[in-house]
């Protein structure tokens, strides 16, 4: 799938749509999810134009990947999360991805048990 520069996260990166910023770095941005699925629900996105995790980890430079993982660490610190959180990146329609700019969800604040619901 080609990258669509009009996706909602690209608009957030360009400042065309507001967001509740958590951290803002050279390589990444994190902000609160607009429709939280848990008491804490943040998103971390790279600044570069990458469709999904497969695209990011195959094409991004070492600096971009390091900058991205550093942004996840800084976001966890800003949210006060040391344990009891889940990191998720949905990769493709079949995995439930709806915004096609690579991102990692950080979910916390409620008990989370099985990774997938029964039958999934
Ligand atoms: P996914 O379904 O894994 O692609 O995740 C996309 C996430 O983006 C969902 O959890 C949405 O609630 C979230 N989202 C969509 N639009 C916005 C927005 N304008 N600001 C913050 N989060 C958003």
Task: Provide a descriptive summary of the structure in words.
The chain is an alpha+beta fold. It is 25% helix and 21% strand. Strands 1-2-3-5-4 form a 5-stranded antiparallel beta sheet, covered by helices on one side. The model has no long low-confidence stretch (mean pLDDT 96). Residues 8, 17, 19, 33-35, 43, 90, 96-99 line the site of adenosine monophosphate (AMP).
Can I get a quick summary?
This protein has helices spanning 8-13, 53-59, 62-78; strands at residues 21-24, 28-32, 40-46, 85-88, 104-108. It is α+β, with helices and mostly antiparallel strands and 120 residues long. Adenosine monophosphate binds next to loops.
List the helices and strands and how they pair.
Elements: H1 8-13, E1 21-24, E2 28-32, E3 40-46, H2 53-59, H3 62-78, E4 85-88, E5 104-108
Antiparallel strand pairs: 1-2, 2-3, 3-5, 4-5
Bound molecules: adenosine monophosphate.
Q: What tags apply to this protein structure?
A:
alpha+beta, globular, 120 residues, binds adenosine monophosphate
Sketch the topology as an H/E string, one letter per element.
Answer: HEEEHHEE
Content-based structural category: alpha+beta
**Sheet with the most strands, sense and barrel status:** 5 strands, antiparallel
- The level of helicity is 25-40%
* N/C terminus separation: 25 Å
Count of beta strands:
5
User: Strands of the largest sheet, in order across it?
Assistant: 1-2-3-5-4
Q: Ligands in the structure?
A: adenosine monophosphate
By DSSP (H or I, 4+ residues per run), the number of helices equals 3
As a whole number of angstroms, the C-alpha radius of gyration is 14 Å
Parts with pLDDT < 50 across at least 5 consecutive residues: none
- Shape type: globular
Mean pLDDT, all residues: 96
Tell me the fraction of residues in β-strands, as a range: 15-25%
